[in-house]
Structure formats: C-alpha cells, structure tokens
Design goal:
Chains A, B: GO terms for molecular function: pyridoxal phosphate binding; transaminase activity. Chains A, B: Residues 146-173 form a coiled coil. The structure is a homodimer of 409-residue chains. With 409 residues, the first copy, chain A, is of the alpha/beta class. Chain A folds into two domains: 2-42 and 297-405, Aspartate Aminotransferase, domain 1 (Alpha-Beta Complex); 44-293, 3-Layer(aba) Sandwich (Aspartate Aminotransferase, domain 2), CATH 3.40.640. The first copy, chain A, is built from 16 helices and 14 strands. An eight-stranded mixed beta sheet of chain A has the order 2-9-8-7-6-3-4-5, sandwiched between helices. A four-stranded antiparallel beta sheet of chain A has the order 10-11-14-13. At the A-B interface, helix 1, helix 2, helix 3, helix 4 and helix 6 of A face helix 1, helix 2, helix 3, helix 4 and helix 6 of B.
Chain lengths: 409, 409
C-alpha cells in the first residue's frame, strides 16, 4: 500500500515527543520530556460536577453537533477573560473560533494560507507541532534566531528585505512566533521587540501568528502586552489554549483574529472535523462562568515556580562549573532549553537516557534541518520535587559518561 | 488579507448543511435538513454518571493528553463490538485509530493518500463532507452513479479500465463508498455488488474506503456483511462513528484498517490535532464496558423506523399521484432522497422553504458539478411526528406553487 501514499505522507515524520510519551509510563522512569502539565493542578471536582450537570440538563446541546465556530457561551466568556487578563478589547464572537487544541488551529492556518511555494517565518529552535503542520503544505520556511529576549528582529527585517528584492514578498504568508515562554526555548519576546515586529510586519504587509499557550503561567516579572494587542486584529492572529490552565484532555484551542480570516478557518474546519466536541466546550464555558480561572491557577503557578526554581538550582549545582554548558532561565511556562558544548549529540544520548530512566527531548526535534543537536528541552512541571533532583543527577551521569567516551570533556 | 489566502482556501465552499443549522432554531421552523440524530435517544444519565466518575477518579488520564492512536480501552471495546455486530475478526488495537468524528478521518485520508493529480471515485450524489475533505488535496474525482442497490459497478470497472488504458492507474488512490443507507441517497449496496466491488478493487489494486456511519441503524431487512469483512484489511479501510448511536457531541470516529495505513494516519494526526479528547473517549469506553450498546439502541431504531415509515407515507399521500416525483425507500439510516421532475430547482426552492418554515437540503449540495438540482435530501429522525406530517404538507405547498409558477406542473 505504501506506494499509494501522497508525497506529503512520504515526508511526514513521526512526532518524537508523542513517541516519547509511550515510554514515559515505564516503572522508575523520570521524564523531563513531554510538555505535559500536572493533572493534579486541574479543578477536577468542579469539572466533574459541571460535566454531570450539563450532560443531564443541557444534553440537547452537549450531546449534539455544535456550530463550527464553537460554543457561543464559551466564546463570550473568553472575550471577557481576554479583557480582564490582557486588556484586549474591540472583539466579538465572530473574531473567535474554538478548535480541537491549538494544533488544529495550526493545521487550519496551514490550509487557508499556504501554497506549495509559500514562505513563512519560524524560530530556531521551532515548536515541533507548528513546523509539522506548516510543512504539510510548504517547506519554504525562513528561520529567526532566538535570543534571550526573543527572535532576532534585525535578521527578520533583513530576510524580508532580501525576499522583497528578489520579488517574492507576495509569497510570504506569516511570521509564526511563541511570544511568552517559548517552546522549546523558554524565552520571552520583549515589549520593544514586539513593537518592532509589528512595525516590520506592517511595512512588509505580513501576518503575525502569535501562539501563546503559556502566557497565563508567569512565575515572575511583569506580563508584557500580547503582540495581538499591539498590532491589532488586522495584523495579528492570536492562538490561545486551555491545555495548560484547565486541561489538555479537553483539547480546546481558541483562535482570535480578524473576521475574514476566522471565517475562512471556519470553512476549512467544516472539511476537517465539522466542529469541536460540544461537551468539552460547555464544560469550559460553565467553568469560566462560575469560577475565576485566573485566581484558580495561582496555586499552580506557585507549584510550577517552585519546580522551575528547583530545576534551575539543580542544573546550576550539576553543570554550573562546567564550561560550555548553559541553559535558559524562563520567567514562566514549562520549558528550559539546555545547551551542551558542540559535539554532544542529544539524540544519541536519549538512548542512554532511556536505559538510565531519564527522558528529555533532543534538540534536533525542534529543527527542520537536523541542527540543534547539542541542545535538549527539559520540562519541569510534571515530575515531583524528588524526581527533579534525581533526574538532573541521572542527566549529569549520562552527560559525563558520554562526554568522556567521546572525548568532549 | 484575502490576497494572502491559499489556492485551496479560495476554492473552499462553505458547507450548506452547517449554514442551514443556523436557521434551524428559528421559532416555528420544521427542519428535514441536518443529519442530526434525536438527542433524546442518547443515554444521557448513564453518560453523566460515567463522566463525573472518570473526571474524579481517572483524572490523570481524562484530563491529560492521550496517545494519538486513541484510548486503548476504547479500541479494545470497539474490536469486541465489531466482532459481535459484524463478525469482523483478526484485528487488534494497532488496526484502530480514534478520530475527532469521521470527518477528521476523511481529512487524514485525504492528507496521506492524495496528491494534486490523484484520482478518487465518489458516488453521485456524494456525501458533502467527504467531497470537501478530498477536494482540498485534489479535484480529480470520478463519479459512480447510484442505483437502488448501490453504485453502478459496471461503470466503475469501465472507468478503471479507461484510466488504465491511458496509463494513469497508479494515480487512482481509492474508491469512497457509503455502504449502508447512503447519505444523501438512502440506498444500500447489495451483497453481490460488494463482492464485485472487492473483486474489481483487487484486480486494479485500488483501496476501498468504506464509510459506515449508519449501519447500526437498520429498521428492516437483514444486515449485509461490511465490505471490510469481504475484502479484508489489506483492501478496505472502514470508517465508523459514535455520532449516530451514542452522540455526535462526543465527536468520536473510529478508523479500522491495515497497520501501515493506520500508522501513517496517526503521523498525520499528530500534525492535525495531536490527539482526540481523552475525556470523550473514556466516556465511550466505559459506556461500552458497562452497557450493551446494540440493545440500548433498539428503542432508537423503533423510533426512527416509525418516523421513516410516517415520512414515506406522507410523501406517498402528497406526491404519490404526481408524475415524475419519486423517492428512495431506505431500510435504515437518516435520509430519503426525493427527486422532482426536471426543471425544479431545489436550491431556489429552499429560499421559499425558509420563508414557509420548512427546511431541506438542496440536491446541488451533494454534487461537485452543480447537478442534482431537482433533488433534495430529507431527514426524518429529528422532527416529532406532527412536524413530519406538517412539514411534508408545507413541502407540497411550495412544490405546487413553484411548479405552477414555472409551468412545470
């Protein structure tokens, strides 16, 4: 049958992180792998109560097909959440679309914007899920190097200028960026850079896709205005999700954008999955109506902050004095990007990690050109305190063994 | 922004049925439109109980990301359901994939099999959702005419032979068919034709995609072996769904096929929506473990049978003596295909229907070449008895008025 596969099917690569999930459950395994939140932080009793209630009393909605656009109550509630949280105003329900997680939003964006010869900008390292959704339609990506304060905007401008010079500016469809606590890099784009990015996008008439799954999980420092708020709905498409704050199991993503784009995404969604499940949408809607999500996640934030600080401290203790080892210090989110000296191959090291019961995601998984080999992504949110300590200890052991064997240390 | 849209985005058409849903809620409206089951038939109290329980006790699974392949318990249970129901054997969990409704399965099939120049076979009239998913990747469809006993297999063979003669057989990816109680036509493929279709597919080495959302809703006659059972997993990909028997609001589709194809669909799904919601999958899994789905749907079958017989009787009463009016007599499912004499334009008539508070789906919506204009799809499952009677009365009034005005009667 394989000779029947489409060209894109033949070039599809299985998602390393999804594959990692399968070995995570091995007894004794400590995983810094998946970007998996801690399910103990989710309001399960409240959701259980709501779920029972809406299945019994609102079954004509919760058990039925819903509109492709999404539950109207959920969209209304989300508008008010965006206002309270980020001061975003001037949008109504037609600016919002509810998707099956943000991954589905990325798939829809890919469908409505990309042709085979379309160009798009992504960071390096890049979020795997975005890269795979986009590359299904076009592999013409342009990299943006990541710094501690976000993408290198000078480089973005230079690249756009070059593309314009060669007469291909009309092929540039969007700049994709994770504004807060980048996955996998952990870095956040500064306010100044956000403003410059919007200016450049205006100048070259390019859409910005701002993916912000982690913005609510800020552990220190002051929140920065979303690019969407700076650039407005005509310039920026904002992707949000409930996966890190209410539950990934619900699979709920929210797209906020100008009505023409949202409407086209709705049409694409009709041919993709008809509609997001009615039940999970109404659970989230009623939850937002009854509880204050932002104060509910305060204990989660405290918990993750502590784990993040612990992992940073353990990394410092284990690798602080070793030359060429460095890591990002995120102010929120789920990830630390750990870079080793040149020559270390984290993909190869993962096999040793599996044997030693410690998982991480090799940096290569976040590149489209088999680079980032000497980095790895570490997630601190799921493992308990003692596993963070023990996990970094195991990591150190592997690093030292591998480094000595390869004459890198 | 519209100049940024992809070529496929520019040719996307909004789904007429989804648009119809929006006017369905108008007071006084009777809808024969959507293929929407009656939510009163679903076991809401059982599902409410299960939902509460699994959110409280199995929250580490139900609120977390799941595997892309789907809930293992749900897949195990579904294997045993397929065996009990259709005698399908010789499959294990790796032959199954859980999708966000069957629509998502169609999207994944489109992604993994179709290139821009790929050829696929669909019926005429065609199920809208399939046509729109496939046409996102290729518009090279070949029609199969529908008869009372299913697609015209001679025509299929003749077309395959012609394609082979011109050296394009390797471009033919699949034959898509709804085996039972076709949407929109209501017809069922006979056993003889199923066997011949498999023979021909074997001869020309073409995959059959058997979509069977309605097979469990048989009101009379004897069940016919699925094409999947006749042709086997190397030849046939089977799509099933919980939407008509447990609830469309859960958005659960099941793909059954050979492991190579299922695995490739899993990879495509990773880039499409990561995984189907864990909560809705576990609700269905526990339901299948605790209750006998097939006996639970018996009252539903009785209810729908009565409504179907009533609509057929009302059609006979209103149109039986009118020349050139005919309709299919389905043995199950949700739809009757009602054909009027040449010259009637059901799309134009729909506007009158909206004004007269009666909705149906114009035949044109089920064609890829703006034909089927003198047919319409009628669904009998959702409206109460009195609305079926009154609805057909309103339909008659519109038909007579339109027919006289256009000198067709």
């Amino acid at each position: 049958m394989t000779e029947k596969f489409s060209k894109i099917a033949l070039r599809m690569k299985s998602n390393v992180i999804r594959e990692l999930l399968k070995v995570t459950s091995k007894p004794g395994m400590i995983s810094f792998g998946g970007g998996v939140p801690d399910p103990d932080t989710f309001p399960r009793f409240e959701m259980a109560e709501i779920s029972k209630e809406i299945l019994e009393n609102e079954y004509k909605l919760t058990l039925q097909y819903g509109s492709t656009e999404g539950d109207p109550i959920l969209r209304e509630e989300y508008i008010s959440l965006l206002k309270r949280e980020s001061g975003i105003e001037g949008i109504d329900v037609d600016n919002l679309l509810v998707t099956v997680g943000s991954q589905s939003a990325l798939d829809l964006i890919s469908k409505i914007l990309l042709d085979e010869d379309s160009i798009y900008f992504v960071s390096k390292p890049v979020y795997l899920g975005a890269a795979s959704a986009f590359s299904l339609r076009s592999d013409r990506h342009v990299y943006m190097s990541l710094r501690e304060d976000g993408a290198d905007i000078d480089e973005v401008e230079q690249n756009l200028q070059e593309i314009e010079n060669r007469g291909e500016l009309n092929k540039v469809k969007f700049i994709y960026t994770i504004s807060n606590f980048h996955n996998p890099a952990g870095v956040t784009m500064s306010l100044e850079k956000r403003k410059r990015l919007v200016e450049i996008a205006n100048k070259y008439d390019v859409l910005i896709v701002e993916d912000d799954p982690y913005g609510d999980l800020r552990y220190e420092g002051k929140p920065i205005d979303p690019i969407f708020k700076i650039g407005g709905q005509e310039r920026v498409l904002l992707l949000k999700t409930f996966s890190k704050i209410l539950s990934p199991g619900l699979r709920l993503g929210i797209v906020v954008g100008n009505k023409t784009i949202v409407k086209k995404m709705v049409t694409a969604k009709q041919a993709t999955d008809l509609c997001t499940p009615s039940l999970t949408q109404r659970i989230a809607a009623r939850y937002l109506q009854r509880y204050d999500l932002l104060s509910q996640i305060e204990p989660t934030i405290a918990l993750y902050r502590e784990k993040k600080d612990l992992m940073l401290a353990e990394l410092e203790r284990s690798f602080g004095s070793m030359e060429g080892f460095h890591w990002t210090k995120p102010e929120g989110g789920l990830f630390i990007w750990f870079t080793l000296p040149e020559g270390f191959d984290t993909a190869e090291m993962l096999e040793r990690g599996k044997a030693a019961n410690i998982l991480f995601v090799p940096g290569e998984a976040f590149s489209l050109d088999n680079t980032c080999n000497n980095s790895m992504r570490l997630s601190f949110c799921l493992p308990p305190r003692e596993d963070i300590i023990e996990g970094v200890r195991r990591l150190k052991k592997i690093v030292v063994e591998y480094g000595k064997e390869k004459n890198l240390l």
